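Input record, target 12 of the design panel.
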């Protein structure tokens, strides 16, 4: 359904991130730093720090400049100038909330690769199963979506005006899915 929405509560975000952290560590990837793509990646990055305690570098990438005009390509609106030299030879855990068109993520990966890190692992809460505008370069060998979802609009808790209503809508969605015999594995 076109107007179908996926409601996500803070509890769900926390559980998804905890599961991801275990998966990454179990796979043998031991990151040196976390890079969070703002603003959607900020809260997931802070939660992952509870399970994988590494410094977080925040970057801001957007199709919109500070003049709010839409650009052709994603551009940096905040970058890690002071520390970018320190990424050389390091293992980077890159985190964002959603892989939609992949444009922002792939742009960020490309920029980070220019600092010659040992490896970059990409982590997101949701990957939308769809034709992507761009692919990741071959250097990306570790890609961890907490969930694979259809191309629906995801309502994240940090965008909610009424957080109790957000939780109620998520619960309602789970009940509806249960009735339909679908299950979201969290
Ligand atoms: P991608 O690399 O993650 O696929 O990003 P893309 O450029 O395709 O996404 C453009 C913006 O749209 C991003 O926000 C992304 O987070 C947001 N977006 C895409 N799908 C959804 C969705 O289902 N729900 C919500 N809430 N947002 C979505 P941004 O420019 O990075 O801004 P910010 O919200 O992270 O600050
Ligand atoms: Mg984002």
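The sequence produced for target 12 reads:
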């Amino acid at each position: 359904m076109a107007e179908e929405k996926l409601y996500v509560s803070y509890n769900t975000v926390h559980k998804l991130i905890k599961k991801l952290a275990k998966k990454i560590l179990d796979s043998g990837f031991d990151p040196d730093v976390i890079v969070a793509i703002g603003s959607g990646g900020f809260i997931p990055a802070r939660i992952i720090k509870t399970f994988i305690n590494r410094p977080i570098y925040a970057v801001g990438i957007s199709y919109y400049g500070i003049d709010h005009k839409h650009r052709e390509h994603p551009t940096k609106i905040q970058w890690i100038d002071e520390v970018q030299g320190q990424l050389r030879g390091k293992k980077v855990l890159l985190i964002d909330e959603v892989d939609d068109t992949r444009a922002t993520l792939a742009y960020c990966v490309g920029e980070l690769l220019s600092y010659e890190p040992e490896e970059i692992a990409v982590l997101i809460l949701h990957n939308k199963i769809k034709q992507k505008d761009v692919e990741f370069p071959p250097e990306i060998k570790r890609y961890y979506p907490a969930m694979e979802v259809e191309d629906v609009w995801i309502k994240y808790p940090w965008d909610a005006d009424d957080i109790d209503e957000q939780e109620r809508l998520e619960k309602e969605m789970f009940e509806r899915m249960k009735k339909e015999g679908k299950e979201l594995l969290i």
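The CA atoms of residues 28 and 126 lie 22 Å apart.
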